[in-house]
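User: Sequence for Putative membrane protein below. Tokens please.
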Amino acid sequence: MILTLAFILFILMILIGSDRGAKSFLTLIFNMVALICTILLISSGYNSLVITFFTCMFISVITLFYQNGINVKTKTAFISVIFTTLLLLIFVYCIASKSIIQGIPIEQQFEGEMIAYSKNINLNMTDIEISIIIIGLIGAILDTSVAVATSTYEVYTNNTHLNKKELFKSSMNMGKDILGTTMNTLFFSYISEFMTLMIYFNKNKYSFSKIINSKVFAQEFIRILFSGIGCIMIILITATITSNVIMKIKNIKSKAVT
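Assistant: Structure tokens for Putative membrane protein:
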């Protein structure tokens, strides 16, 4: 069934996207391989935070440069994504280490025991939780960064008289429009994963206070909050970097002409 669905996806991407669709499908495969390698390396005992950062770099390079080509838009988006990822790693580490959301929640442990999962994996679960949050965010951050960088570049192309401040303001206005849809996408993605457990809570007459104090609820809710923070950060950082880079290129060209 999985192979059938993958084949249908491939055919649809080729029919609708032609060469671009084929590149997108290959990008998806490369990213899947990167995630599998990440899991294997972390399982082998390598530092999960370092591995996560380099995985995000690889995914960014493949998604931006292989799929969309090397240009001003993808370069500024790449710099923005890497800078945002570094900031998020530090920020998430500070929060996650104090909120104690790492590990497998009690509500999910019974399932693991039923299929004889071993609990003794000898890994830093806090670092793994941080890796899960960052990798879960990288797709949305990439999409948002590309959208902001591209729209900023197009605005400048059609309005070359704009100064840096005006270009940045236009970029932020477009970012605000993107933010709402991106946040909804992430919100429903996390909530849909949580629905089965919510039904379980309801059937077993869990009180509201017990639900909001459960680790599994805290994990999902904190991930949603980090998603929102990450999306806001990437919009601000991409708008700043892109407007600055475009203005520098403009100044260099004007000096070359004179």
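Confidence is low (pLDDT under 50) at residues 111-117.
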